[in-house]
Amino acid sequence: MRTPSSFVRFAAQSALAVACIAASVACPVAAHAGSAEATTAVHSYYERLRSQLRWVTVRVGQREVQTPDPGSRLLLTRAAAERAGLAEVGLDWRDVYGVISAETSWVPRAGMGRNGVTSEGLAQLEPATARALGVRNVNDPVEAVHAAARLLKEAGQWSARRIDGLRLAGAERAARLREGISIYYNLSSAARERWNGVSHPDLPVETQRHIENVRAGARQAERLAGGKLELPALPKATVQRVSTSPEAPSVVGTIEWSGSGSDADGRRSGKHVVWSNGSVTRESGGRVRWTSSTPSGPGDS
After folding, report:
1. pLDDT of 103-143, one tens digit each?
2. Alpha helices in the chain (DSSP H)
3. More reliable by pLDDT, 13 or 241
4. Domain containing 238: what range?
5. What pLDDT is stored for residue 221 in this prediction?
6. By the 8 A CB rule, do 80 and 148 touch?
7. What is the spatial distance between Cα 110 and Cα 104, in angstroms, rounded to a whole number?
8. Is position 250 within any domain?
9. Is 225 among the domain residues?
10. What pLDDT was estimated at residue 64?
11. pLDDT digits 0-9 by tens, 64-85
């Protein structure tokens, strides 16, 4: 387990690693866009990044899955945000981290939306969305997080257009921009068009929770990085708290699991509380526990 100070060192190291990885593939991708060489360059980029990740095993019921450890999440989200160009729309790696936290709390799983369509992986991508984003394996954390970053850029561009006429500035604009991102990520094309940049006549409770959980996840990411990075302040959100002892983890948000995917057994559906130590607790008391690190990743044999 990394200490807080080691997370700060890892954050600095990850910035250098991201720059090196990006530099190694930038020219080939630019020179051969759309070609087999570009595909090979992207694959090489993913492999270089994947080789630097560390993994932890998560137990969900009777099933064990692997996911990047907290330090590796910092590296992965920074790389994905830089590659997607999120700075162009006023977003950064914390938003990527926040969305993954809101979708799955970094516990890869299968789910089902209100439309009856299944979703998979850390980013909870539906099949059509995954195809549109060029994702080959939605259950690969590296691909999934990069796809989420690309989708976030689309969402940021859409949200910015919706709020352009409101003449917002500073934290207020940042908050509205990110509210629109959750609406874009969660709602259908028709439903999202009802958001006018200020309010939505019938915003589902799941989307309201998503907005709060993305913000909570982004703040958690900054805490993991030691709070030493020079980043714009995030707008504050109200998150329900529970009493804890000094040693106990704190609540960082909630997620709603339908229990309709591969984890469906009726016992794990419903509302879950996400804790700062990476664990997830059902309101009825069931618990997802983090175990010790393992040397191999999801793609290893």
Report:
1. 999 998 888 777 778 899 999 999 999 999 999 999 999 99
2. 4-31, 36-50, 70-84, 93-104, 127-132, 141-163, 170-186, 189-192, 205-224
3. 13
4. 4-294
5. 94
6. yes
7. 10
8. yes
9. yes
10. 86
11. 888 999 999 999 999 999 999 9
With CA atoms as reference, report the closest residue to 2 among 217, 226, 299: 226
Query: Based on the structure, what is the number of domains in the chain?
Result: 1
Query: Encoding tokens for residue 190?
Result: 């028709």
Average pLDDT over residues 172-192: 91
The number of beta carbons lying within 10 Å of the beta carbon of residue 51 is 9
Q: Are 119 and 110 in contact (CB under 8 A)?
A: yes
Query: Pick from 120, 103, 114, 111: which is nearest to 253 by CA?
Result: 103
Closest by CA to 261, choosing from 139, 134, 129, is 139
The pTM of the full predicted model, rounded to 2 decimals, is 0.68
Q: Dihedral of CA 193/194/197/203: which sign?
A: negative
The residue assigned the tokens 């890869």 is 108
Number of H helices, E strands in the chain: 9, 8
Tokens of 184: 């874009």
C-alpha separations of 92 from 153, 180, 192, 265, 293 in Å: 10, 15, 23, 37, 27
Query: Does residue 269 lie within any of the structural domains?
Result: yes
43: left (phi over 0), alpha (psi -120 to 50) or beta: alpha
Q: How far apart are CA 166 and CA 248, in angstroms?
A: 42
In a domain, 70, yes or no: yes
**Encoded tokens for 129:** 């969305």
Quote the tokens at residue 49.
Answer: 């990044």
Lowest mean pLDDT among 144-148, 168-172, 194-198, 239-243: 239-243
Contact 286, 266 (CB under 8 A): no
CA distances in angstroms from 105 to 22, 29, 80, 179, 182, listed in the order given? 27, 32, 17, 19, 15
Side by side, the strands of the sheet bearing 280-282 are: 63-68, 55-60, 287-294, 280-282, 270-275, 251-257
Q: List, for residues 257-271, the tens digit of each pLDDT value.
A: 555 444 444 445 566
Residue that the structure tokens 């250098």 belong to:
16
